[in-house]
Write a structure and sequence with these properties.
- This is Glyoxalase/fosfomycin resistance/dioxygenase domain-containing protein.
- It comes from Streptomyces swartbergensis.
- InterPro entries: Glyas_Bleomycin-R_OHBP_Dase, Glyas_Fos-R_dOase_dom, PhnB-like.
- By secondary structure, the chain is α+β, with helices and mostly antiparallel strands.
- The chain is 18% helix and 39% strand.
- It has two helices and eight strands, in the order βαββββαβββ.
- An eight-stranded mixed beta sheet has the order 2-3-4-1-5-8-7-6, covered by helices on one side.
- β7 and β8 form a beta hairpin.
- The protein starts with a strand and ends in a 5-residue tail after the last strand.
Amino acid sequence: MVSRLNPYLSFDGDARQAMEFYQEVFGGTLTLNTYGDFGHAEAPNADKIMHGMLETPSGFTLMGADNPPGMESAPGQPFSVSLSGDDDAELTGYWEKLSEGGSVSVPLEKQMWGDVFGMCTDRFGVPWMVNISRPES
């Protein structure tokens, strides 16, 4: 798998509606996973989107999610840039360079879905997400 660079949009509770709208606009295949899908079935936000991805026939990739509980919506900054793939060395190298001199909000480490993931804001104020896919065992 090659590494991918794409926008990742943040929503305050209406990610499902927004991602379905973008699918109507651009076409393609939409995958939506809720917080309940990842072991939080009893949580008040179980039906909210933890991760959504739209892949279009034109080659566009758009990702989005509802803000997790406790994370405030940041008006004017409803996006991050997402880097994803399975090349551990390449993506870890990007992470190290992007986070240097910036701030780390989620350390680059294994997450409940099995991938290594982290979030940082670079020294210029641009928010980044890095996801390193792990082969299924």
